[in-house]
Amino acid sequence: MIRRSGPIAATVLAVALVLSACGGGGDESGAAAGPAAPAAEAGGPLDLTGACPAKVVLQQDWQPEAEHGSMYSLVGPDYQIDTSTKTVTGSLVTQGVDTGVDVEVRPGGPNVGFQPVPALMYLDDTITLGAVNSDAAIAAFADQPTVAVASQLTVSPQILMWDPESHPGMSTIREVAASGAAVLTSGDIVPALLAGKGIIQKGQIDTSYEGTPARFVSDPTILQQGFATAEPYVYQNEIQEWGRPVGYEPLANYGYSIYPEPLAVRADKLEALRPCLQKLVPIMQRSQIDYLKDPAPTNRLIVELVEAYQTGWSYSPGVAEYSAKAQVEQGFVKNDPASGVFGKLDPDRMQEIVSTFGPILQSQGTITSVPDAASLYTNDFIDPDIKMEGP
Q1: Measured distance CA(8)–CA(318) in Å, rounded
Q2: How far apart are CA 164 and CA 350, in angstroms?
Q3: Alpha carbon distance 336, 387 (integer Å)
Q4: pLDDT value at position 228?
Q5: Phi, psi of 304 (to 5 degrees)
């Protein structure tokens, strides 16, 4: 399974390629439309007409997958799939009502030349919200500043995984790394973090991971990056050459504290979008909670999109179902621990993120100065009454 690369290591292709991927036109297809949703109450909190653009554009950082369920769950039953531009567009439907505007969800990764989301947002100002990892926001802040307005995944599901048979009795990254195992990643942020904490040595770092299982299958002594919401299922159930469990541990246990894919706006559009965000952000808070309560309909759309886009990315109903369960059961999606509010960004954690990853990016020459944490986010639009239900 090809997974998203680190934001700093992303391949940058020609601007023309990116703009063609984001533009309109192309071959369209759509599912048989279900019953139309009733219109939201005029002027009510779910009526977005007048407050938001006629088409709310949501930009993801990777191919369609269940980790992006909150975006895809807003796409109404009248959706159209554009297989040329790799987009899906339909009425924006939430909590059973039509908000009066459309929504378009755009995938990232190879569909946009592997451009980071902040770059896409500054190339195309029709993008309303983009999924911008906290470290990517720090890296892009000097030239393409974004402001996070809501968290969707609370804790990063990024992992390092290993073969239990090659490392018997070991249950943590620290234990496996102490054996001298190579650490295979697609970027240098995670290795730099672990090396700085003394968990791995520089000689163990290998940033040549290209996203396939070939290296792990042929050399099961290594540690390899992955997602707790995908790889454990895929390796055991869908990779015939492996077909058994993997051991893994979240990198969040070792200071990988970033907010993964929080929703962000361009900094220079924050004020203009304020009327929209006042209504849209609470909708996004609820859309993630509602998706995880009943992920099956949205998962069917996600799998349909993957099949329609034909980019070489594969995504099965099984892994989609596994991901939705893992997001909740393994604690990757939960209320903000500090406030108990779903989607709220914790100021202390944002400062920790900047203090941790700013110097790493600075030492790697990615940035020249570290931004102020307060400039990277706002909780102005969060509805404090929206919370995930307890177990």
Answers
A1: 31
A2: 35
A3: 9
A4: 98
A5: -60, -40
- Asked if 63 contacts 111 with a C-beta cutoff of 8 angstroms, the reply is yes
For residue 156, give every residue at least 6 positions away whose Cβ sits within 8 Å of its Cβ, in sequence order, or none: 250, 251, 252, 256, 257, 258, 259, 260, 332
CA–CA distances in Å: residue 114 to residues 6, 17, 63, 64, 123: 10, 10, 11, 14, 14
> Over the stretch 342-384, which tens digit does the pLDDT of each residue have?
999 999 999 999 999 999 999 999 999 999 999 999 999 999 9
Q: Using the CB atoms, write b or e for 220-235: b if 16+ within 10 Å.
A: bebbbbbbbbbbbbbb
Does the pTM exceed 0.85? yes
Domain annotation for the chain: domains and CATH numbers? 7-154+258-376 (3.40.190.10), 158-254 (3.40.190)
Q: What are the strands of the beta sheet with 127-131, ordered from one edge?
A: 28-29, 80-82, 87-94, 97-106, 55-59, 127-131, 263-266, 146-150
Would you call 99 helix, strand, or coil by DSSP?
A: strand
Q: Which residues of 280-298 are buried (b: 16+ CB within 10 A; e: fewer)?
A: bbbbbbbbbbbbbeebeeb
**Which of 156, 6, 147 has its CA nearest to residue 67?**
156
DSSP state of 315: -
- SS3 assignment, position 375: helix
Joined together, the tokens standing for residue 61 give 């950082």
Cβ contact 354:370 at 8 Å: yes
Residue type at 315 in one-letter notation? Y
Rounded CA gap, 324 and 221, in Å? Answer: 29
**For position 126, what pLDDT does the model report?**
98
Q: In sequence order, what DSSP letters do the residues of 177-245 get, joined into one string?
A: HHTT--EE-SSSHHHHHHHHTTSS-GGGEE----S-SHHHHH-TTSEEEEETTTHHHHHHHT-TTT-S-
- Strands 146-150 and 55-59, sheet pairing: unpaired
The residue whose two tokens read 């369209």 is 28
CA dihedral 93, 96, 97, 103 (to 10 degrees): 0
| Sheet of strand 158-162: strand arrangement | 205-206, 183-184, 223-227, 158-162, 247-250
Round to whole Å and give the CA distance between 1 and 105: 22
pLDDT for the residue numbered 20:
38
